[in-house]
């Protein structure tokens, strides 16, 4: 018999934060470890002046800004984003986000990324 | 030569809302139409007393509550969720969300769902 994956409700503060290159802090909210089949939801906290890593990779990001303000780089595009803005970073686009004001955002990635970064 | 998919920054209010069964209103923020390969980000607005559809399907939801309060049903689990809470709804779990206070949330689904619901 197939094992049933349990659903849940948790609070962001239940998950421990890890520092990223650039000084932003990440929480992996939902991953393959929870039984997520397709994608993984992360919460990223960027204190003013700090940033996420500037890099590119073969997978996409979908980002929603919950709070604050960032300066976003996506390929040749450079612009500010505020609460209620959302960002699409396609595969292989060079990108990064620097906080202009303390910022919080949701950033979703394919589940393979969680598997590669966190292990099984 | 492979065509390059452009990244972007947009505001939630740039996207038109559609009413769902139960009275919640949905915005499809990022879909296959934007070149998203794996998943699709939606913004859902639930006025107090209204709800998302109560149903089940073969794909998962990952949800982050931006604002307000909901009563969430996920299989046998029934509990309230507030700003900063996140929800994992596994494939095939019966689920729905009713607003206790006006609520806004991000809800991510596999990209095939956007394709089925919105067309190509």
Give the helices and strands, then pairings.
2 copies of one chain form a homodimer.
Chain A: E1 8-11, E2 18-19, E3 25-30, E4 39-46, E5 61-74, E6 77-82, E7 85-89, E8 95-110, H1 111-118
Antiparallel strand pairs in A: 2-3, 3-4, 4-8, 5-6, 5-7, 5-8
Q: What is the compact description of this entry?
A:
2 copies of one chain form a homodimer. Chain A is mostly beta strands.
Number of strands of chain A: 8
Beta fraction of chain A = over 45%
User: Would you tell me the structural class of the helices and strands of chain A?
Assistant: mainly beta
What is the straight-line distance between the termini of chain A?
23 Å
Keywords for this entry:
homodimer; 7% helix; Jelly Rolls
